[in-house]
Structures are given as C-alpha cells and as structure tokens.
Amino acid sequence: MSEAGPFALLGPAYRGRALLLLVLIIAAALSEGAGLALLVPLLATLMQGPGGRIAELVADLGLPLAPGPLLALFVALASLRAGLNFWRGQVSTHLEFDLVDALRGRAWRALLHCDWRMLMNLERADTTSALIYRIDQSGFYVNQVIGATATALTLGGVGLAALAISWRMALAAALGGGMVVLAYRGLRQRAERTGDRMGQDYSRIYGRLNEGLGALRMIKSLGGEEAASSGLAREFSALRSSRLTFQRDQGLARATLQIGGAIFAAVLAWTTLVVWRLPVATVLPMVALFARAIPLLEVLQGALLGVAHTRPAVRSTLALIAAAEAAREPDLPLVQPPVPAREITLAGVTVRSGDSILLDDASGAIEARAITAIVGPSGAGKSTLADLIGGLITPDEGQVLIDGSALEEPLLRAWRRRVAYVHQDPVVLSASVRDNLRWAAPGTGDAGIVRALRDAAADFALGLPQGLDTMLGDGGRQLSGGERQRLMLARALLRDPALLILDEATSALDAESEAQIAAVLERLKARMAIVVISHRGALLDIADRTIRLDRGQIVSR
Length: 557
What we know:
It is a single chain. By secondary structure, the protein is α/β, with parallel strands linked by helices. The chain has two domains: 12-326, ABC transporter type 1, transmembrane domain (ABC transporter transmembrane region fold), CATH 1.20.1560.10; 343-556, P-loop containing nucleotide triphosphate hydrolases (Rossmann fold, 3-Layer(aba) Sandwich). The chain has 18 helices and ten strands. The protein has a six-stranded mixed sheet, with helices on both faces. It has a four-stranded antiparallel sheet with strand order 2-1-4-5, covered by helices on one side. The longest helix is centred in the middle third of the chain and has 51 residues, at 225-275.
C-alpha cells in the first residue's frame, strides 16, 4: 500500500482542496522563514553593527534599516502566517473528516453489495472494529500526514532563512536533523507494530462486548458475572499495555530530542563564535532559528510516529474495502422476478466453502403452494440450503430451477425480491411499528401495513398505546417473543413473497405462540411456497413435505 492510499479515495473536488492545503502550508512556511530572516537586519540596526547579507538585501530593496519599519514588516509577516495557518487548519480538518466519511461510506457500501459467501466468512467483531475504530484511526493517520507535511515544509522555510544567514551553520543543522530522523527509524517501526496490536485488541474487545451483551441473561443465570468481567478486563489490560507502550515511546523520543537538541545547539553556537568567529548579529538570529527548529523537529518526529502507529489501521481498512469490492455482485439490469407455479427444484447442487463441502450433490423439490420442512442435525447444511433456494448464493455445481428455468443472473437478483426471511433472532429496529414494517417495503401505506399485520395474526400492534406510531425500543423488548416474531412475519409478508423461509423462527417460543404462527402458515401456503427450518414443534406437524439433511446430503425426502 502506498502512503497516499487513503488520499486516492478522494474525488477531483477533494483533490483540489488537498492542493489548496499544500499551497497554504508552503505559503505559511515561507512567511515564517522570511519573518525569522528579518531578525538579522533588525538586530544589526539595534546594535548599530554589520548585519550580513540579509541586511544588505533589505537595503538593496530600498527598505530603510530602521527599527520601526522592520518591526512593522515583522508583525505583518507574523500576522500573515497566523491567518494562513488558521485557514490551513480549517481546510485540513474538513479534508480529514471528508476522507473518514468517504472511507466509512465506501466500506459500508462495499459490504452491502458484496457476495453473500464473503459476508458469511467475515468475523463480525473484526468488521465492526474496521468500520469504527480503524476508520477513525485512518482519520488520525490523515491528520498526522498533513501535520508532518506542514512541519517539514515549515522546517524547510526555517532552513532557507538559515541558509540566507549562514550556509555553514545551516548545513550543519540540516545534517543533525537528518541524523535524528534516521535514528528514530526503529522507534517508528515499533510504533507500527504497536498500532497493529491495538487494532487486534480492539477487535477482541468488540467481540467480547457483542458476546456479553447478547448473553447477559445466561451470564446472570449461571452466576458468571465475575468470569465475564475478568475476561473483558484482560482485553482492556492488553489494550492499555499497547497504548502505554506507544505513549512511552513518544515521551522517550521527545526527551531524547530535547536533550540532544540542547547539546547540539550549544556545540554549534560555540563553534560559530569561537572557531568560525561569526559576528554576533549573525549568530543570535541563527540561535533563534535553531530554537524554533528543535520544537518543529520534535513535532515532525511525533507526527511520523503517529503515521507509523496508524498505518496498520489504514492498511486493514483498505484491504477490507478491496476484498469487498472484488467480491461485489455484478450490476445487472432489473428484470421481472420469477414466480413459481409448480416447484423450486434442486438438481445435483454442491456448495463448497474452502475445503469444506456444505451441500453435496443434493437433489429435491419444494412445492410452490405447500409447506416444506428442512430438518437435520446441527451443521447438516440446512441454512446453506435455505440461502441457496433464497438466491443469496449460487451452487458450485448443479442448478437451482424455478419451474424448469435455471435460477441464474439476472433472474437470481430479481428472485431475491420475492423471497422473505424470518430468523430465529428477530431484527427489530429501535423505531415505530410503522417504520419497522416499512423497512421491507418502504412505499407501503398504512392500509397495506394493517393488512399484513392481520395476515400474520399480529394485529395486536394496532392496539398498542400509539398504534402504528408506537416506538418499540431497543430490540423491541417491550414485546413478547411471540409478538416480535409475528411482527417480523408481518414485515416479511409486506414483500408479497413467492417464497417464505422461517429459519428456526419458533425455537425460542412457547407452545401457544408457536401454534399461532403455525395457524398463520396454514392459511398462507395457498399464496406462496413456505420453507420451515426446525428441529421440533408445531411447524413440523403442519409440513406437507420434509427434506432431511445429514452432513450436506439429502438422506430422505
């Protein structure tokens, strides 16, 4: 990955702002160098002695060697630099935020549009870390790159002023500064390794938190509070250690630079006054320049450490985006989705994931107006089969057919619009009843929502305090499990599906709630194909056909 990696995501308009930022940085650096160079004629005037080449240049330009005009020019240059730096700060901040937004938006869009097989293989905690922590770190990376560029160019302006005053002292100082940057190379490499460890620490923390929040009931029922607490504490301790290592390295770099800079400045001042016998009017401004350069060098070194520290976050973010975009589903024209009149057929389908075979030469049929149950032990391939007939994945071998027509692109993408899922863990938004249902069909009016609620035996929602405007809260916790599932069934029906898939949708419900959903499905099967994935219960009792899987193979139909 090149250092300009994240900047390459910016469009032409942003690149224009990046160029403006560079111009402002250069202008501010030159104004600072010019202001510092004015110290020579100013001191020469105040001391009534020779001022060297800068004083001669000022005189040649027709400017009077008098304290008043020189001080006014010095203040003007300082004011100009302050204005340029303020402008630069505003442009820099907006550019950084825009790039972070561009990265996050591009990463999210890439994930939304990539192939389902890749999504299945992603680690949720690692992906969450990339979308939040690592992209934020990428913004800090941009900030540090801009800061390092501005500081380096400001040092360049100081160096030009030093060259105009005394080339020997300027070259000696430049040699010392270059040696400092090279000497800290190992420290920057260690900062990069620390940044990589911190990214891994954050991924583990996100994973622990996701698991813990989803298992709070189990943790409390098993008395596992202390174990869960200590587990997360260990992850935060590892993160703390990584952060302390980076902070210690930064502090060590600053302290070493300050001590070394003081020694170098003292030696150079002694050399210029005693060995080279330069006039005081020349040496004093050079001392002032060095006094300005040493903090700048410290800032530059800190920025380079920051760049190295955040580089792994940028690298992993760009890698995620590249992988997701490489797996992007092709953009195809919209076609009329197929609607099965007879059956959905599996003809010798095989699905692989790496070296594993998820489905092996599976053949069978799902009737268009019936309830088909898919059963089998855990890991038998039930969810893979559901993803296959739902159009989320395509087989590596064999075909899926609808009434004899192969389900291939662009029909595959169109078919998804006629498929609806109801999962074991209902996805209830922290929004109103209306907004929860409209998620499946944004343009649906209230009449359609009411009809879907009644079809799903979920018309209890109409009797809630604010009706369709009732806010359901985080995860719909104010509803019972059966109510949530019936609400999700109503949402699925808003899509007017030709295929309805229920993946363990009633496994956590009581017998009464499961019976209510079974009764709903009995009524709905005249309108659509229904596939039920379940281990037990009322839904298996109402199935017209059963497909039994074992180790990726259909063992009975």
